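Note to self: the last two entries modelled the partners one at a time, which told us nothing about the interface. This time every component goes in together.
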Amino acid sequence: MLAVEVSHIVKSFADKVAVDDLSFSVAPGEMFGLIGPNGAGKTTTIRMMMDIIKPDSGEVTIFDAKLGEATKNRLGYLPEERGLYKKLSVIESIIYLASLKGMDRKSVEEKADELLNQTGMLASKNKKIEELSKGMGQIIQFIVTIIHDPQLVILDEPFAGLDPVNTELLKGMFAGLRNRGKAVILSTHQMNQVEELCDRILMIDNGRTVLYGNLSEIKARYRGNSVLLDFKGELGEVPGVTAKRPGKGYTELILDGQTTPQQVLAHLVSRGLAINRFEVATPSLNEIFLKEAGRKS
Amino acid sequence: MNKTLLIFRHEFLNTIKRTGFIVLLLALPVLALLGIGILNITSGIAKPPVEVNKIGYIDEAGGFDQFTTQGNIELVLFDTTEAATQALIKKDIGGYFVIPPDYISEGIIKRYIIQREVTPPDATISAIENFISSNLLAGKVPADTITRIEAPLNLVTITLTSTGEVAPEQGGLTNLIIPGVFGLLLALSLTFSSSYVLQGLGEEKENRLMEILLSSVSTRQLIIGKVLGIGTAGLAQIVVWVITIPLLLNLASSSIGGFISTIQIPSNFLVLGVAYFILGYLLFAVLSAGVAAISTTVREAQGLAAIFTLFAVAPFWFYSLIMLFPNSPVWVVFSIFPFSAPVLVMLRLGMTGVPAWQLAVSIAVLVLSIAGGLLLAAKLLRTYILMYGKRPNWGEIIRNLRSG
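The predicted structure of the combined assembly is written out below.
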């Protein structure tokens, strides 16, 4: 059973098409990246998955069920634009928002203690939200997102405004969710985070699919014809290398069409060169995106 | 628990915990009790001691020697001003007056006192007046006529119904008080409660909670739970006032009596008060929700909402005009106009009563406006509640509403 299946959804607003015929699916136990620049249509897509807005056409199913009140209880959503009731205490906020996900008060309190403890926030349990720092508020929002043990968790720009310590804390918790068989959708414009965390991705731009599939396969497809080399000594002429570009701490060797990186490595080893690093140059998601977005437009 | 009910409970509890709500709730009973207390204390202090009930006089004109007992006041004749002044200093008398030889032609009486006062007490004035007129008329007209001249009439006005029977509510100034006070509180309660809806939704939009809420509940559940939760708190406020008004009146009339005990509450007033609160609140609340949807900040929303909440308090600007011409066609129109109807009808009920057809039309118009307002607000919410940034301009909003 798929956690979410989106087929051919379209959504237009007064003057523009925000989402144009998107289809994708996410399986349980998978961390899925929804990526694209600001304004690409990520949040609109998520809002349709959450049944906050309706698509003009197309369909979304969550665990094979149509969207409705019952499916909302199985979803956890951390929106990009977030806030809490400033005058309420941490625990009151958690209890109210979790009760709207169908949890009873007693189980909320137990689970809240556990999660607050895990995130080092237990001491702030009875503080008012307005007394918390921005980063602490974001942790509370993340707790609200996952406290009802959702089967599908959607995180929209979860790292925005977080310091490195809290970013690492959240990354660890996301991995924990995936390991417990939850489907996690991570939507962001920070493509380096996706490279680090996600198994599969959907890259969109102007509401349309740019790339969709397994991350390592996609990257392999875009692997360029060059290697990165860090060495000691004199490099000299290398057969099959058409150009050398110096980089920071490495030299990029551009290969001709016929030579493979393995042949280059064998040649360098046979010459006895001291090699510190030898890496097949793989473009970053960012570079792939720029390339694809440029090509499509 | 049903999610609408959860939101209802959350909003109800949050509203009744607000300081503004508690202050407004207690304002009526506390102010009334304070008023009764102050009246009791001052009237207790102001009770004149027995010896002050003697007023001295010096008769230089002659012939003023009868009728020296006027109610509780005794008039004591002195031969000289020196003797009267001594008695005044010793507090044997509360004051004295001199009837000069030319009194008949000039009409001037000089009164001497020790304790400064703003105006002479009514009892003293009427005692002196009656003493002088009685002595002037003595022997010239019959005693009964003298009494009648001193109190020429006691005007009793009776209001008849259109069929010529005595009307159950007789009107008068005392009838204005309760509807006036209640109308003011109704206006405050209406504007406060609907501003809570505005503030609540506005804050949830401004601090981006809306999206979290809408990922758990539908727009419909959110609005219904919120409007009814806050409205029930407002209604509880009105019910507390409605219950305390008769209790306070009983307390006041038994302890103070007089004027207070003549206050009447129009018979249909309490029922209509509650009905107009519910209708007025629903109208203001749904429109507030719509306004909150299109505004980007709470402050902006409050500015926009003032356009219609002003109508709730507007009847008080024209209070004296309404009192002078309570049945003017202008007020009839504004009793039907949904924004001003709740408060204006309350005020007019106290003054002259409002014909049944006007009540029926005004309630019908309110109900229709609520239905229309609800449709409008729902559309605005669906379209705009998750749009941040610049407020859409009116042309854009109208285009969006038309395209549905």
